[in-house]
Amino acid sequence: MNILMISGSPHPNGNTAIALAEMKKIFDAEGVDTTIIQVGNKAVRGCIGCGSCYEKGKCIFDDDVNKAAQLFEKADGLVVASPVYYASANGTMVSFLDRLFFSTHFDKNMKVGASVAVARRGGCTATFDQLNKYFTICGMPVASSQYWNMAHGRAPGEAAQDAEGLQTMRVLARNMVFLIKSIALGKEKYGLPETEPWTPTNFIR
Question: What pTM, to 2 d.p., does this model score?
Answer without folding.
Answer: 0.95
